Amino acid sequence: MKRTMNTTNTKYTKSPIVETIFSIDCDMKKDFDLIKIEDKAKNTFINSYPIFQKKYAQEHKIEINTSKENISQPTIRNFIQGFQFLKEDKKQLIQLLSQGFSFNKLAPYTTLDDYISIIQEAWMQFVNVVEPIKIRTIHLRYVNKIMLPFENEKVDLDEYFNYGPKLHDENNFGLITFFSKYNMIEKSSNNQANIIFANQNPTDDKHLPVILDIDTISYSSPESNDWENIMIKLTELRTLAYNIFDKQITKECKCLFQ
């Protein structure tokens, strides 16, 4: 059953979203092996996502013998962490990972509603190929890049953000860089969010890039083939992410996206 979202989310003409990631972490069968499902995965996804890539990871291991006070030579193991299937422009991809699934959409981005049916189809195909045992967590992450205009080589962060870094003495000091990371919980739903708020180095003399990365998480376990309940959680996470973003930015900031 296909289901659309009805939310109060604002659709901006110049969306600051540079990447949206919907992901589900799963428990797999004990004998699960990505290599064994490679052919089946290709047959399932290659028509819609013709570019296929393997995602590798590296594991470093050091053994310490406390009785002999010996440290073994480190061993390095390279292994396949997942399969990536990309569109021709590489702006949209599906990932089959050792611990789950993800759908990634890079800018240009419109609205999540435009991709719900695509995500649903890809997830159900993933379930058919991988046969996960249990859903552990559901994530919806928005990475926003906000370009703040310089005025006389400066930016007044208070003009654009309701909650930002503060100096104890702004008359005698100037902020060069900032980075904050925090985790929060929504008491009504027990959904959580990991938030990163930081500046990047300017690439020109006109704008200061600021990253607002909002990763919302539901620790719920609907059945893997129960898309209706997955959608309920996805809607909750979308609303949470929107509320965090909306409360963080000012009206002046929103004008940058019009």
Walk me through what this model shows.
With 258 residues, the protein is an alpha+beta fold. The chain has one domain (17-255). It is built from four helices and eleven strands. It has helices at 38-45, 116-130, 227-248, 251-255, and strands at 17-27, 51-61, 64-65, 70-71, 75-86, 92-97, 100-106, 134-149, 179-185, 192-199, 207-218. The strands form two sheets. A nine-stranded antiparallel β-sheet has the order 2-5-6-7-1-8-11-10-9, with helices on one face. Strands 3-4 form a two-stranded antiparallel ribbon. Strand 10 (192-199) and strand 11 form a beta hairpin. The longest helix is centred in the C-terminal third of the chain and has 22 residues, at 227-248. The relative contact order is 0.20. Mean pLDDT is 91; it is low at 1-7.
Structural class: alpha+beta
List the secondary-structure elements in sequence, H or E: EHEEEEEEHEEEEHH
Radius of gyration: 22 Å
Rounded to the nearest angstrom, the distance between the terminal CA atoms is 35 Å
What's the story with the biggest beta sheet?
A: 9 strands, antiparallel
Dominant shape: globular
Number of helices: 4
Low-confidence stretches: 1-7
Spatial sequence of strands, sheet with the most strands: 2-5-6-7-1-8-11-10-9
Mean pLDDT: 91
Count of DSSP strands: 11
Beta-strand percentage range: 35-45%
Number of domains: 1
User: What percent of the residues sit in helical stretches (DSSP H or I)?
Assistant: 10-25%
